[in-house]
Every structure is written in structure tokens, then in C-alpha cells.
Amino acid sequence: MGEITIARREFLKTGGALVVGFALIPYAALGQTAAAGKSLAADQVDSFLVIGRDGGVTLYSGKVDIGTGTRAAYRQIVAEELDVPVQRIAMIEGDTALCPDQGGTGGSTGIVNGGMQIRQAAATARQALLALASTRLSVGSGDLRVSDGVVRSADGRSIGYGELIPASAGTGSHFDVELNAKAPLKNPDTYQYVGQPLARPDLPAKMTGRHAYMQDFRIPGMLHARVIRPHAVGATLTNVDEGSIAGIPGARVIRIKNFVAVVAGHEWDAIRAARALKLQWTGGGGLPGSERVHAAIRTTEVARDEQLIRTGDTDTALRNAARKFTASYEWPAQSHASMGPSCAVADYRPGSLTVWSSSQGTHGLRRNLARDLGIPAEQVRVVYMDGAGSYGGNGSDDAAADAALISRALQQPVRVQWMREDEHAYDPKGPPQLLDLKAALDANGNIAAWETEAWLPENTPNLRSRPLLAFLAAGIPQPVGQSVAQVQGNAYPSYDLPNMTATVHWLKTTPLRPSNLRAPGKPGNSYAVECFIDELAAAAKRDPLEFRLAHLKDQTGIAILKRIAERMNWQARPSPNPARSRGAESLGRGVAYVHYKHTDNRLGLGIEVAVNRNTGTIRVTRAVCVYEAGLMINPDAVRAQVEGNILQAISRTLHEEVQFDQNGVTSTDWRSYPILTFPEVPALEVELIGSVHDKPLGAGEAASAPVPAAVGNAVFDAIGVRLRKAPLTATRVRDGLAGQT
Amino acid sequence: MAAVNLRVNGSLHPIDTDDPGMPLLYALRNDLGLHGPKFGCGLGQCGACTVLMDGQAIRSCQVTIRAAQNRDITTLEGLGAPENLHSVQAAFVAEQAAQCGYCTNGMIMSTVALLAKTPKPTEAQVRTALAGNLCRCGSHIRVLRAVMRAANAGGPSHG
Lengths: 741, 159
What we know:
The complex is a heterodimer.
Chain A: E1 10-14, E2 17-22, E3 24-27, E4 32-35, H1 45-48, E5 49-52, E6 57-61, H2 70-82, E7 89-93, H3 110-137, E8 144-147, E9 150-153, E10 158-160, E11 172-175, H4 203-207, E12 223-228, E13 236-241, E14 252-256, E15 259-264, H5 267-276, E16 278-282, H6 293-298, E17 302-311, H7 314-320, E18 323-331, E19 343-349, E20 352-357, H8 362-373, E21 380-384, H9 396-410, E22 414-417, H10 420-426, E23 433-441, E24 447-457, H11 469-473, E25 500-507, H12 522-539, H13 544-550, H14 555-567, E26 581-582, E27 585-595, E28 602-612, E29 618-628, H15 635-654, E30 683-689, H16 707-719, H17 730-740
Parallel strand pairs in A: 6-7, 12-22, 20-21, 24-25, 29-30
Antiparallel strand pairs in A: 1-2, 2-11, 3-4, 5-6, 5-11, 8-9, 9-10, 12-15, 13-16, 14-15, 17-25, 18-23, 19-20, 19-22, 23-24, 26-27, 27-28, 28-29
Chain B: E1 2-8, E2 11-17, H1 24-31, E3 50-53, E4 56-59, H2 65-68, E5 72-74, H3 76-79, H4 87-94, H5 104-117, H6 123-129, H7 140-153
Parallel strand pairs in B: 1-5
Antiparallel strand pairs in B: 1-2, 3-4, 3-5
Helix pairs in contact in B: 4-7
């Protein structure tokens, strides 16, 4: 099997720019090639871009395409700034030996951060290429024009990018040029590629079974493994009956303290062995259970309080107001619920560890594996491969740790794939949230004061990543704590209120190991905030959309809400709907408005529902979203992300709650943890606001935030029942209706 | 070791195994290297592993290789290739009807089976036909459009 050799760079001084030749080193066993000696520094152009002698360009991206379409968008950015045809750009993503560390992929930052870095690298490279051409053609670079990767002078001479690379530079070349933050960018009015709905390059292979997903990846000599988790979280393994799998060909047990796995040459044998293996566990458990998790939150130790906002004098305004309101809202623990269980392949041998993973942060995973396994970081390589959509930190990094640990124990390449119950039970969860809200109305029915108290799990200070399951079980020391991302976002209204405070009580613990889940915290917080806004509008007997407009000064926000009203033919009236019944179904409409994180996208969502009063079933029949997107590199990909976030958030709103007892998760399949199905999908209208002159604002996850509240408000409009606990299940609707009478 | 013979995408393949109760999915993915069908749940709940057996869309995680013997199995690879797309695959590409694409195999195979029986389905019929195919990314709207596009492209599908 091939070793990765890092060759020395050869420096060649050429025409004012340093061009670096590098060797292509085959990773023999895989038939892959790795460019050794390539720069990885984030401030070097050649970390991102390599120009081939044939004029082809290779883009090395630390951010990865987890199904969002950045594989198209990054090419568009490079094609635009470098003036090369988009078809001439190859792309390598998330390989820690080849790609710069641009931070993890997530938070809709792929374009906002990663894309803008790539844009600047391409602009710098173009400048350097023009300087080379200027020398070669003896023409000032201001008199040169570039199109399709060919530099032309006014007198008709031309030279291709590939020809600018000296013959001695090796098979591919790149520039030893520092990324110039001021390298001139294209005038957006001249864009050819950016702003176009380019088709995603990976889809034909995905549609025909030719695309190699992580789950499809195999290497010679590889064993299949399955990890067996305890019946109760944190349990101790007391006995392993290896004889219980004696009849299964090639099956054997790997045990490291409380970490236990089976391996076999054939995947089915590993699965059979995992099912047959008799284990004894003791202890563990101690969870509050999903039924009383929010009650438990109130008695959980608080690490510290943080005030998110304080305007005016909320205490006095609340004390003096005529009409005061309080409500508590509960958001459940939710799973990433990836369609494909997490998978990884690891190849450990003395002096090197290579891991193939669909991690959203391969560089971070590499650091963690090196640190926890005591291997020098330069000997660890993590190679990204597409997994099933992950929407944040699912089980991918854990599967990588599983595979690395087993491969180290066996000194053989190992593939680990989780089973469905593993993914549902053990992917880190979006944590449960609890918000207490208080508000007051003045004599005119406007909001006089607002107070949020939120109970949310803290990010353990200085913890860069969540603990990995395999190392916890195997007793391998690693930094302990929890990592949940910025879950406090949108915990107060996106309106201009005179007296407003919002406080987070940061919880030291949360029952299930947490991680970032799509738009971390914001759907749950917005659910509470935007439903409570609706409660105030209803109390004031005012139309909920006009009530919002009355509290909003932001012109974009006002335009968004008015546009929703126009598209939905919104009739101004208070909720609930006085003429709402159609047989057993009651019809309602609701709206929510969010300025995402109070700094990013402004967006509104209108929802129409039909609620069956007998069964309690909510049908979302229509969703209308007006979304401020800013610069859209690929408008169709942005639209797909907004659509996907809305539908996924409808699923989270109606169905999704991780159920657990004192031992662990009990909702371990698609029946106990259902998600949205085709018959439930509403008509969906998405209107995107943005132009090529804007800054990019993040494509997608903001659209998750207003969904739960808009649905909840539509349900209230339909049946007059305010549901303050998500998901909005049929049982809760029926209970609410029963409580009305 | 006994051999079980599977007829997949038109050719016969002997599978060496001591367990004819192995689900078809593992033979397709591991013995035949056909990665179109995906492991999603192993429970017949998600549809990611869907293949055609004698023209019917079935969950290959729920059918043993013993039961699949002497049947005509078609996988996603058997429909078309990137340079020669089946009409349903072409419609999915045209509508950009996937995000991660992990569930796409099941969507396309279920659609092919639907259109063979019901060449001009209503959107409601498509929704019902795909009710057992889960998508987590939220590509449903585009999938529905792709199926309607494939149906409207009309005629017998090639491949």
C-alpha cells in the first residue's frame, strides 16, 4: 500500500512571481494521486489554486459540499475572477493533505467565508498571471485582456495561462504568491458566471449510482466493523462472550475498556456478529427522560447568565403596564437524522493514519484524532468524501474515531458504518430549549415591554469540538464538555421595542450529547418569540401581520412582510379565524418574521394550514417565503437551500422529538422518529431578494428559523389553540382542543 | 459455501455465501459493487435501497438473496449512465432534484416503477407513490417536478 511522501518544494524564480513545481505522488493502493509539497497556508494563493500546463485549474477547498451546491458555486467564483471556463476547473475538497484549513463547513458560511476567501485567491492569481504575461509579451499588464484562460495584448498576440508556467516547473504549477486582500475584483456588472443558475456538476453521477459516497468507499484488505454501544449511556462493560459469534465466518471482537466492536471480512458477517454478540453491562443511565426534560432543565445547574440585549427599562415598564402576559415555550431535542448512517474508513499503520470521512470539518477532526491517539498531526490525513446530508455535526466524526481506534488495534484498514439505530440514538443532538417570556401591552395595544429568559446549554469554554464516543468508551483522555454552537440567536424579537431584555441562563449540562443542528437554537428561540408576538397581537385584537409592521422600522423587513401579505392575499383581521371550518378541517394562516441572528438575512414566512379537529392532524398546505439572500453566486442552489430548510423545519415542527428514557434514546427508527413525507409537502413559494452588488448573506439555514412559529401561528388561527410545546403533534392538538371546552 | 445466482441488470452473477438469508442489498453493494442502492435503515422504512424486481419497486434490505434468485433485478446503474441517462434520471438532473442525493436512488427507482404502471400520473398519485421514500434535505418539491417532467416527456423510457 502506498505511503504519502511529502516532496521538497522546488523554487523557480520566474518573471516576478515565484512558481513552485510539485510532484504528483500516487497513493498506490487507491489509484489516487496526491500533490505532495503543496502549500496549505490560508494566506497563500497556491493553497487554493493550481494551474496546470494544459491551462486547467484545480481548486483546493477546505470547505466541502455537503449537498448544498458549493461544488458548483466555488467553480463559478473561480471562473469569474480568473477568467477561465467553468468546465476547466477541477475541485478537491476537504483533504487535509491538500486543502487549506478554512474552518468547518456549516452555519451557511460556505460562501460568506469560504467563497470570499476563494474569490480573493482567484483575483490574486489573475493579477499574478497578468504580471507573468506582461513580462512575457513585453506589454504593460493594463493593456492585457483575459478571456477563457487566454491573455491577449492589444496587438493581437496571446498566451494561455498554461503556457505561462515554465517547462521546468513539473506537471502542475502554482504561485508562491501571498493572498492579496486588495487584489482587484471583477465589476459585478460584467459577471458571466456568478449569478447564473449553473447545474451542479455532481448530480449526473449521483443520479446514476456512479458517485462514490463515503458509504461506497472500499480499500483492499479492509475489514468491516460494527460498534456495539451500551444499553444505557455511560454503562460499564462487564463481560464479553466471544463464543456467541463463533459460528460467523471471520468474525472477531475488538474490546478496549467499554468500547466493543466486531469485525469481519464481509459486511453482512459483521452485522450478524454485532447482533449475535452477547455482552453484559452494568450501571449507566440517569437521564431525566424526554417526558420531563424541560422540568429537569429548570433544576439544572447554571454556569452563568448572559444578557443578550437591554434597551430602555423593562422592569419599570412591566411593573407599570396595564396588561401583562407570560408564557413558557418548550423545544425538544432533535436529531440530524441523516438518511445514511455515518460511515468512515481508517487505515492505521506505524507512522501514519489516513481516515476517509464525511466530517464537516476534516482539519478539526485531524487535530482531534492526532491529539487523542497521540499521533503527530503531520502523520494524520483526513480525506473528505460525501456522506448523506448532515445539517451540522452528525455521527460522522464519531464513526471516524471508531474506525481509527479499531484500525489501530488491528493494524489493518477498517470500515465502520453505523446502523440506523446507532445514528438515531447516538448522533449528537440539537439540545432541548426552554424559554420564559413576559411582555406588556400599552393602552394603544402596542408592545410596551419584553423580557426573555432562555435556558440553553453552554458551550464549554475553550472546547474546540465535542468529545468522541469511541474515545469516551475506550477511556482515552480527551477534552470534556459540550459544544452546541450559537444557540442563543434570535432569543428576542427582531422588532424595535422600547423596553426589552433577554437573558440566557447557560446550563452546565444537557441530557444528550449535543452538537450544532441546522440553524442552531434559532428555530426553537424564534418559535417562542414569534408565537408570543402573535399572542400579544391576538390579545390586542390586531391583525398579526399589521401588528408586526407596527413594531418594525427596518425598511427591508417592512417590504418583506408587505410582499408576503400581497402574495398570500392577506386579509387584515385578528386571529383566530372567525370563518375557518371546512368540514372536520379548520383553516388558518400565520406569519413570522426574523432578522437572522439580528445581523444576517431578513426573512418572512407565511404559512397556511388545515387542522383536522377530530384527528388533530395538521396539514401545512402552503408556505410563502421572502428571503433576503444578498449576492447569490448560484441562485438556483440558494433557492434549493431555502426550500430544503423550510421543508426540513416543517418536519421538525410537526414531527420531530428525540424520545429517551433514563437509559438513552428510545426513538431509534423512522417510525418512532418520523420525518416529513411526500403527501405532507405543501405548495412552496420562495422569493429571493438580492443582487450581484450585494454582499453574500448565507444561503439557507436562516429559512429554518421562522418556520415553527409561522406554523404555530397558523394553527392558532385555525383552531384558537396556542401550542407552546413542539413538535405540534396530533395528540397535542387534540389535547389543546379538549382543554378549550 | 453455497452459490446463489442473481440476475442483475441483465447478467447472471453467482454469489458465494453461507447465508442465503442475507438481504439482497449487501450482495448488490459488496459482491457486485453496485452502489446505486444505499443502506439507509435496513428496516424497509426509508426507501434508499430500492431496486426493481421483475419491474416492481422493492426494498432490497428486506428481500433475501434466496428470494431474489431467478428474478430480474434492476438497479440504478442498470437504467442509464451519465452520458446516456434514462429519461427519469434526465428529468431529475434537469430539475436539479437532489441535495445530498443519498435518497435519490429510491426516488428514481420508485418513479420508474410508477411510470411503468401509470405513465401519466397526477401529482397526488406521485406523492402517494413516493410516500415511503424519505428525503431529509427537503428536495421534495423538485422531485415532484422531476417526476412530472419525466411523465410529460412521455413515450416508453429507454435504458
